[in-house]
Task: structure prediction
Amino acid sequence: MDQKQIVTQMINFNKSTFDSSFNAMIALQDQAEKMVFGYLDKATWFPEEGRKAVNDWMDTYKKARENFKSSYDENYQKVADYFMKFAKEEKAAKTTNAK
Result:
């Protein structure tokens, strides 16, 4: 098996693993958020400023999470493009040598 193909498969496996883990983390965080807001809805003693702080904290956390994911996806695409470029060059070289 070609080394480039092995590396490509490893990269795709890592991307798939990361996406699955990231989605599981999102589900866990969303469930925790529901629990926190459910608790805050029932905690009449909790001040409104505290509720706003928790809400802002959750919004900031979600934004940072999405920024991290988009950064990861962008960098993964760069790596995939890099290896696709080599595959195209190799295919072109084989076609040229065959003539």
Observations:
- The radius of gyration is 23 Å.
- Residues 3 and 90 are 12 Å apart (CA to CA).
- The mean pLDDT is 89.
